[in-house]
Amino acid sequence: MNMLTEIILNDKGTNENIRVQVIRSGRKSLGLEVRPDGTVLARIPARLSDRELKAFIEKQQEWILKKVNQVKKRADARTKIQVPSVDALSDAEIQKIKDKIADRVKYYCAVMQVTVGRITIRNQKTRWGSCSSAGNVNFNYQLYYLPDELLDYVVVHELAHRRHMNHSKEFWSEVERYCPDYRVRRKQLKEYQLAN
């Protein structure tokens, strides 16, 4: 039997449709999550009927709409980076971006005494950077257009994952060792919104 995988809510205040993604699992409770990008997730027991699901969403609709609007207001308050699209960049410009970010990675690898595998620069829709367990690091090309101290913070953050693949106290201590004002920089970074 096919069961609902999403529910569409209508915000009468803005006349916008909001998609609620349904995730079924072995859990016993029902939960809702509104992510920073505005995505709404409903986590429910695998055997919950569609009727019960709809009743749950209907009961929580006011809360969902309130949370989604709060997320949108926070996003609107952030500075959207004015960057050219990847397609608009020349080969020379792309190489310049790659060289600058890669140079900062190599510099901090030496300072922090860590190694990495591949260094990839690309257009990521939701992240400034990431580090895999294999030691490969990815960075968003939009970092090139941020103040240098924020680029350095993201680089240090990802390289700190070469010692701690989590966000534990030890991880943040590692970040602080090479970026003493990381709290200020992290806060500043949150003021920028990725341009997609």
Can you describe what's shown?
With 196 residues, this protein is an alpha/beta fold. It has 2 domains: 6-77, no CATH class; 80-193, Zincin-like (2-Layer Sandwich). The chain has 5 helices and 9 strands. The strands form 3 sheets. Strands 1-2-4-3 form a 4-stranded mixed sheet, with helices on one face. The two termini are 38 Å apart. The relative contact order is 0.11.
CATH topology of the largest domain: Zincin-like
Helix/strand order, N-terminal first = EEEEHEHEEEHHHE
CATH level-4 homologous superfamily of the largest domain = Metalloproteases ("zincins"), catalytic domain
- Helix and strand content put the structural class at alpha/beta
Low-confidence stretches: none
Number of helices: 5
How many beta-strand elements?
9
Radius of gyration: 21 Å
Instruction: Tell me roughly what share of residues is in helical segments.
Output: 40-55%
| CATH class descriptor of the largest domain | Alpha Beta
The end-to-end span amounts to 38 Å
Instruction: Return the average pLDDT rounded to an integer.
Output: 90
Q: What's the assembly state of these chains? A: single chain
In total, how many domains does the architecture comprise?
A: 2
CATH architecture descriptor text of the largest domain: 2-Layer Sandwich
Largest sheet: 4 strands, mixed
The proportion of residues in beta strands is: 15-25%
Q: Characteristics of this structure?
A:
196 residues; 21% strand; three-stranded mixed sheet; 5 helices; four-stranded mixed sheet; 2 domains
